[in-house]
Amino acid sequence: MVQEGALTALASAADSSQEHFQKYYDAVMPYLKAILMNATDKSSRMLRAKSMECISLVGMAVGKQKFRDDAKQVMEVLMSLQGSHMEADDPITSYMLQAWARLCKCLGQEFLPYMSVVMPPLLQSAQLKPDVSITSAGEDGESDDDGVETITLGDKRIGIRTSLLEEKATACSMLCCYADELKEGFFPWIDQVATTLVPLLKFYFHDEVRKAAVSAMPELLRSAKLAVEKGQAQGRDNSYLKQLSDYIVPALVEAMHKEPETQICASILESLNESIQMSGTLLDEGQVRYIVEGIKEVITASSNRRTERTERANAEDFDSEEDELLREENEQEDEIFDQVGDCLGTLVKTFKTYFLPFFDELSVYLTPMLGKDKTSEERRVTICIFDDVAEHCREAAVRYYDTYLPSLLEACASENPDVRQAAVYGIGICAEFGGSSFRPHTGEALSRLYNVIKHPNALDLDNAMAYDNSVSALGKICQFHRDSIDASQVIPAWLSCLPLKNDLVEAKIVHEQMCAMLEKSDSELLGHNNQHLPKIVSTFAEILCAGKDLATEQTASKIVNLLRQLQTTLPPSVLASTWSTLQPQQQLALQSVLTS
């Protein structure tokens, strides 16, 4: 018992300290291997199992360079054990399944030669049939057997042997591990694993089995896709990937309809989203229709559950304990809707305008989510879905502006910074692609964006992303709707907010826009008598000081060229006064750039 405890403690130490454990490796590993090789009698089965666990965790911690030679010896022992006869209740079986998977994580592609040894018993464990006994509920005598869990359904009592289910769940989760780790190298096993795991998406005896099956689906598609792309698919092409996708995607949608646990339902949506990304345009219209119908059902079911909870909260016997439970359950609904948003976003990005007929149908389900009575997460996700439609369908999405833009403008004032960010980002997209349909909204958009930018706490960490996206949206109004605004006021206000430093994607876009304006000697940007020049130069200095974060290489070299032009074209007195406004490290940065 003491030895087992010591092994568990060592394994935890290695797992927590990761590569720092390397300096103890040479002192520790000989002891671990000795136990693995010598603890062969029945009384020390658990000890041997624990030594496997410890060795594999130590190996993962120190990495393959350090572990490689010992790993080969350890795998020889595991292989001989695998070949020997073991009793059904031997703990080594499930420890060994996990040890193999950790060795694979550690060795990566170098593990491939061992797969032919590992896979057959793993598939066998994953295919275990549940050991179920059914008696009538009236019969006397509870089962004395610890290893049996009983549930009563109507007038029947169902007993399930749990140890088999644990082994099955472990095996399923290891299969997912191998596919994830070996990528295209896993190709030879995809068919067997898919036909084993797809039916388990609806294995209601054990949550962990379903969770593992759900997580494995996109990994199998990824493995197939990479193998086809890299020519390692034994001569198979995209038609194989389509076949696999045709098998997996509808099965995920069907499982989503029937899933009783909200948390697993969210995981199914997450896997479905990744599977749609892998399958891309291999999905045909019928499958997209099936996915969309599934998503409608999920939204309806989730809304119904929320309504029931609201009713429960209004009951007389409602207490604080139940309130806590309700809050947790509603957070899970938010998670589900979040995943719905990701799925729809992926479909919009993949199919662009071809998806719009489906979006028309979904709008009936989505627009109520913008209501005041909804959670901020429901509002945020709905706005993000519209943002995706506006961005990827461009002119074709203009017809939705009347429905969604008023909600976006209103959401600029939301208490929740994530809702604000989604709203101001969408306003920027509509300004960019909306043309004359956006024009009537420019006045209100400007005042809403100003309010976000001028808020006293606008630059607090929580609000910074919303701030950067507001400045970016303001820039797009300047760029695409200059004739509808007082540019001599708006452009200097925009310039005064630069450089952006939080949303690095938007920062690069906005700083490139500033360069483009300066290259055209934009009079409103430069100001009367070049009065904004010091601000422009100091902004450029800050961008250059930040390395690659705030500008692409192209933009950075444009900035350098623009600064050199200013150096040669401006009167020395203007240059000197501009220079004097810079901080010392900015002056140094510019000097080194301009002289190099």
From TrEMBL:
Pfam families found in the cross-reference section: HEAT (PF02985), Importin_rep_6 (PF18829), TPR_IMB1 (PF25574)
Protein location: Cytoplasm
Gene Ontology cellular component list: cytoplasm; nucleus
UniProt-listed GO biological process terms: protein import into nucleus
UniProt keyword annotation of Lipoprotein present: no
Ranges of residues in domain Importin subunit beta-1/Transportin-1-like TPR repeats: 2-130
Keyword Protein transport: yes
Keywords linked to the UniProt accession: Acetylation, Cytoplasm, Protein transport, Repeat, Transport
Protein name as catalogued: Importin subunit beta-1/Transportin-1-like TPR repeats domain-containing protein
